[in-house]
Write a structure and sequence with these properties.
This protein has 129 residues and is an alpha+beta fold. The protein has one domain: Thiol Ester Dehydrase, Chain A. 25% of the residues lie in helices and 41% in strands. The protein is built from 3 helices and 5 strands; from the N terminus they run βααββββα. A 5-stranded antiparallel sheet has the order 1-3-4-5-2. A hairpin with a 3-residue loop joins β3 and β4. The longest helix is centred in the N-terminal third of the chain and has 19 residues. It starts with a strand and ends with a helix. Keywords: Hydrolase. It is an enzyme of class 3 (hydrolase). Belongs to the 4-hydroxybenzoyl-CoA thioesterase family.
């Protein structure tokens, strides 16, 4: 499995009323890194032909992130079926290597032409395995 990584720093805009990262930010980061991973591995032609929709999302919050924390996000595809793919995203405090959250998302592969699920081509499955 190929791991895709991103780094970010917690800003004031990420915080909630308790002064730690708002849960919705973790969800946004999970979605954003999945999209970035897809974009890094595919051509514009592929992206104009296919897209993904989120079917299921499960996230576990293990520790808080605070203003100024440097975070490391890691994602990889766990498994792929005919039209679905399961992805894991782990978010760490970069300086302590502490796991802050882990998520598993299930995505459905779609055709832009039909807006219906379509079988994931083998060449795309191999890009992420």
């Amino acid at each position: 499995m190929q791991t895709y990584k991103q780094e970010l720093t917690v800003t004031k805009d990420h915080l909630d009323h308790l002064n730690h990262v708002n849960n919705i930010e973790y969800v946004r980061w999970v979605q954003d890194i999945a999209e970035a991973h897809w974009n890094s591995k595919t051509t514009e032609d592929i992206r104009n032909t296919y897209y993904w929709v989120l079917l299921s999302h499960h996230i576990q919050y293990k520790a808080e992130a605070l203003l100024g924390d440097a975070l490391l996000l890691k994602t990889y595809a766990v498994k792929s079926g005919a039209v679905r793919s399961t992805r894991t995203v782990n978010i760490y405090n970069k300086s302590t290597n502490k796991l802050l959250s882990t998520s598993e998302t299930i995505w459905c592969f779609m055709s832009h032409k039909t807006n219906r699920p379509v079988r994931i081509p083998d060449e795309l499955t191999h890009l992420f395995s």
